[in-house]
Design brief:
Helices cover 49% and strands 9% of the residues. By secondary structure, it is an alpha/beta fold. The N terminus is likely disordered. The chain binds adenosine-5'-diphosphate (ADP). Adenosine-5'-diphosphate binds next to β1 and α3.
């Protein structure tokens, strides 16, 4: 076993001579000749001309990799250039607020995850694996103490996010796109101006080939198998060639063949120089030995940090002898009790010690059980300079706001257009509802004897638009948020461009189907055939639908489906009650009720739609039935008794616009908070803390 010391230079990344073509920074078409195979390369030793690079310990069953030079990093054709990144952390502590007080999840752990290595974070359930991964990936950023360094320098989060990808456990993929389309959109969003469109497509082809998904490139993502979905999830994050890849439980839910393929792929990606870190529950013995580095946690403390090969001798040192027939990955968890955790943690010094295979032993092909120690990781030299100097261009998104917006608009439009079932349902829903409503209130619009019937028709139109447009986002947005989080966190695009595309894409279908509905009901109910009234009527209906969609997004982004399904009617019912208050005695509505009614956007919609039909100096109506007294033949009288006289339609539109703005802006900020991983459910907890102070 070997220990890295300060005077031993750290290799950053390497590549096997015959490795797959999508190499991170090392390319076969090396224009300065450094990419050619040399004797040193064969032996796993390389020199970058600075004398810094020397071989580090390797596992025996893995090919020896060589270290790329800076010159090699500049010899890419259609791959985005990225620096290699080593990650280290010191005395990392993470705690969470619970109702019982503060709880420590990670307890001062240390570690060093190297580029070119596949690192597995292992441990029993609840050990803190995901927490550690989330912190290292930058997904969790609060309640953390300790130091995280990249290439020996304090991590610049902005740059790091650009250089790393986090593949979450759930394979959330954009629906109604083929594999190739998904990858092309990802490439267009993630690579930006760095590469030409042709090179982006080549990069996509390479990724397809590398991940073995080219056979299903024209398959829609919904039809992929579990293993293929996982590979596509990885592929989507690979198109911009990130040097750091985090994967949370990548093997969960896969069968044994798919698990093997998945880990083999990760080994391959690491070989190409990337820092690949994954959490894994309990790998089989053969899988366990495929990792370059294993980092084990138990109850928030490090209990092992080193190569898989050194685990058995390490356990033997503290009295736990693993039989050769036993899977060491299982054995270590079988022997874990309080005392063993303490012993292992003490021996490994909470991750300050790295156990590695000895270089000399590797040459003689015999494993060693000799423990070598590195007292302080802080002494390790950086692989490259500070990332900031390595890639200054890394700040911001790859593509501009306009490009992101155009691509997202294109993607959403395609997805909506392909949702034929949804479109058919929407069409029939609007057409049938319109015919039904038109039949119920047929010819009512010109009858001065039944104005309240017409008012009920107005309420029905408003309620139709509210429920049609509010429930969709309430039910779909919780899933959309998860998808958005994956893409947003991995720096595909900014929230503003996404939100603008979201805000616009629903408009065509809303206009088309909403227009169809309003057209049918307007003519069937014989409303006045005046162009200005028709336009106002249509505008109020569509505007109400659009505002309701905003409210739906606000609710859907704040709570889950089940809560949203209860919360939405609970919010709308009182709004509806307030909207129709005063019907028949509008003149005597109390001031307090007037103020309450102003808080209901339905009221504005209802006043506006009524004003569109009866306001603006509409001439006296005739009573169709032979009534002796036609009380409401004067439309102004009707508006007065509804409490709507002298209400300007412009003011109602302004009121509606304010509500629309509040819902949309509110939804934007809720989404932003959710994406920053600040749970809304913790708000009461923060509030409690505030009161205690
Ligand atoms: P693992 O991935 O090893 O199963 P996790 O990192 O997910 O473990 O969680 C470790 C422990 O921390 C678990 O007991 C979990 O319940 C707790 N935990 C993690 N995050 C939070 C949180 N935000 N609030 C309360 N407890 C948490």
């Amino acid at each position: 076993m070997t220990v890295q010391t300060a005077d031993e230079p750290v290799p950053s990344m390497g590549r096997v001579k015959s490795t797959v073509s999508f190499a991170a920074m090392i390319d076969d078409d090396d224009d300065d000749g450094n990419g050619s195979s040399t004797e040193e390369e064969e032996n796993g030793v390389a020199d970058d001309g600075t004398g810094r690079n020397r071989m580090f310990s390797m596992s025996m069953d893995r090919p020896i990799t060589r270290i790329p030079t800076r010159a090699e990093m500049k010899t890419l054709t259609h791959k985005a250039k990225r620096p290699a990144v080593d990650i280290e952390f010191h005395d990392l502590t993470y705690s969470v607020d619970t109702t019982a007080g503060e709880r420590a999840i990670l307890k001062g752990v240390n570690g060093f995850f190297r580029s070119g290595h596949l690192t597995a974070i292992m441990g029993p359930s609840g050990a803190g694996k995901s927490s550690l991964m989330n912190i290292l990936a930058g997904y969790v950023r609060s309640n953390i103490k300790g130091q995280i360094l990249t290439n020996g320098h304090p991590r610049n989060m902005h740059l790091f996010k650009k250089l790393s990808s986090y593949i979450m456990q759930e394979d959330l993929l954009q629906p109604r796109l083929t594999v190739l389309e998904s990858l092309r959109y990802a490439a267009r969003l993630k690579i930006g101006e760095e590469l030409s469109d042709e090179d982006k497509n080549k990069a996509v082809d390479e990724v397809l080939e590398l991940l073995g998904v080219s056979v299903c490139q024209n398959t829609f993502v919904e039809k992929l198998s579990g293993g293929q979905r996982k590979r596509l999830s990885v592929a989507l994050e690979l198109v911009n060639n990130p040097p750091v890849i985090f994967l949370d439980e990548p093997t969960t839910g896969l069968d044994i063949v798919a698990i093997k393929q998945c880990v083999t792929l990760l080994v391959e990606l690491a070989k190409q120089g990337r820092t690949v870190v994954c959490t894994i529950h309990q790998p089989s013995s053969s899988l366990f030995h495929m990792f370059d580095h294993v980092y084990m946690l138990a109850r928030g403390s490090c209990i092992y940090n080193g190569t898989p090969r050194q685990l058995v001798p390490f356990l033997a040192q503290i009295g736990h002898v693993c039989k050769p027939t036993h899977n060491p990955a299982d054995f270590v968890f079988e022997v874990l009790d309080n005392d063993t955790i303490v012993d292992l943690n003490r021996e490994i010094q909470n991750g300050k010690i790295i156990l590695c295979d000895d270089i000399n032993d590797m040459e003689t092909k015999s494993p060693t059980s000799k423990l070598c120690r590195n007292e302080t990781l802080a002494l390790l030299p950086p692989v490259f300079d500070n990332l900031e100097t390595a890639d200054k261009k890394c700040s911001g998104h790859s593509s501009s706001f306009c490009t992101q917006f155009t691509i997202l608009l294109d993607r959403r439009t395609k997805q909506i257009a392909r949702n034929s079932v949804g479109l058919y349902i929407s069409f029939f829903h609007h057409a049938i509802s319109a015919l039904l409503l038109g039949s119920i209130y047929c010819g009512i619009g010109v009858d001065g004897g039944r104005p309240f019937e017409n008012f009920k028709f107005c309420i029905s139109v408003i309620v139709f638009f509210i429920y049609t447009h509010v429930m969709g986002p309430v039910l779909t947005f919780p899933t959309e948020i998860k998808l958005l989080r994956r893409e947003y966190f991995n720096h595909w695009y900014g929230l503003k461009s996404y939100y603008l595309a979201l805000t616009i894409t629903s408009l065509p279908s809303m206009f088309l189907f909403g227009g169809l509905f309003l057209g049918i009901v307007y003519f069937m109910t014989s409303q006045p055939l005046e162009i200005i009234r028709i336009s106002q009527f249509v505008a109020v209906g569509l505007f109400t639908g659009y505002i309701s969609e905003g409210l739906g997004i606000l609710i859907g982004s704040s709570v889950d489906n089940a809560t949203g399904a209860i919360l939405t009617p609970a919010l709308l019912a009182p709004m509806l009650a307030l909207a129709v208050y005063g019907m028949g005695y509008g003149q005597v509505i109390e001031p307090i009720m007037e103020s309450l009614m102003a808080t209901s956007f339905l009221r504005y919609a209802l006043v506006a739609i009524s004003a569109s039909l009866y306001g603006n100096g509409r001439a006296e109506m005739s009573c169709l039935k032979d009534d002796l007294y036609c009380h409401y033949k004067d439309p102004e009288l009707l508006l007065r008794d509804l409490g709507m006289s002298h209400r300007s339609i412009t003011v109602q539109f302004i009121g509606l616009a304010i509500f629309g703005l509040v819902f949309r802006v509110g939804a934007y900020y809720v989404i932003k908070i959710r994406l920053l991983n600040k749970p809304l459910k913790n708000l009461p907890l923060y509030f409690k803390k505030l009161i205690r102070r």
